[in-house]
Specification:
The chain is mostly helical. It is built from 13 helices and no strands. The chain has one domain. The longest helix is centred in the middle third of the chain and has 29 residues. It is globular.
């Protein structure tokens, strides 16, 4: 027997799959944007299906938010000693932006598990479903912001040129909605308990965020320096950069810094999650 026959043959190393790369993750996000007609249609269909056969249709979004905001504004304004003219626009804007945050987190955490049929049958990037959620929340937000326009006409809050900061603030809201939907959506598909946990955390965060209560002389005299603990809540800074400009209030620069830092960290986390688990979503749903 020849020596060559006894030599151990080393098989060639298998080629590394490129399915788990940042390039593929980023390509999925870009391809999803190019399918804008699909997620625009799906998002609008979601709204129409929710209010199918109702008389007011999607206007129920505006009615429900308006009634809740007015009731809370009058009740808590009276309890805390704020005037209705001052407190009602504050509460209405807080609830409008909070609903955007809350619905993004809760709907985003089940975005893939509730669209099992589409994911398995529709050959499209998974980011299409992410953009669908964000678009749907923007439609709801557009319905709700009408309430504030009515309040502006009635109470005439001191709106200044700083109100234009609302637009970059909303751009940050959209970016955060995208990464939140990706991270919570994919992880909740693998670990179904996460969606239940997020529901509890969001409910708790509502009471820890100054939406139906306000930091001011009235509250500051009661809680003293402990009011500064609110700033440890990142959602407080998100609400401040959107509500403050529309109320003509000065927004400190550090609020923007916190939101931008959270956005950068969140987007990086979304890319990592997309890189590692994007291809497994179809098997987990």
């Amino acid at each position: 027997m020849s020596t060559a026959a006894n030599e151990r043959v080393i098989p060639p190393a298998p080629q590394t799959s490129d399915s788990r790369t940042f390039r593929r993750a980023f390509a999925d996000l870009v391809d999803g944007l190019y399918n804008w007609e699909l997620w625009l249609h799906l998002g609008w269909t979601d709204i129409k299906q929710r209010y199918k056969r109702s008389v007011l249709g999607p206007l129920w979004i505006t009615v429900a938010t308006g009634v809740t905001a007015i009731a809370m504004g009058i009740l808590y304004g009276t309890l805390f000693g704020f005037t209705i003219k001052e407190f009602l626009p504050y509460v209405i804007l807080g609830l409008i932006f909070w609903n955007f945050i809350q619905n993004t987190v809760l709907d985003g955490s089940v975005v893939f598990s509730t669209n099992e049929g589409l994911i398995k049958q529709l050959p499209a990037p998974i980011s299409v479903h992410v953009y669908r959620i964000v678009w749907r929340q923007l439609i709801i937000f557009a319905h709700n912001i009408v309430i504030f326009l009515v309040v502006v006409a009635v109470f005439r809050p001191p709106i200044t040129w700083s109100a234009l900061l609302f637009f970059p603030a909303m751009a940050l809201f959209v970016l955060n909605a995208i990464w939140v939907t990706i991270v919570f959506g994919i992880l909740s598909t693998r670990f179904r308990d996460i969606s239940q946990l997020t529901t509890t955390i969001v409910q708790l965060a509502f009471f820890m965020t100054p939406i139906i209560w306000k930091l001011g002389p009235q509250m500051g005299n009661r809680v003293g320096s402990r009011a500064r603990l609110v700033e440890l809540n990142p959602l407080f800074h998100y609400i401040e950069i959107t509500r403050g400009p529309l109320l003509g209030e000065h927004v400190e620069l550090y609020h923007w810094g916190v939101v931008i830092a959270c956005t950068v960290v969140g987007c990086a986390a979304a890319l990592v999650v997309m890189r590692n688990y994007r291809s497994r979503v179809a098997y987990w749903v």
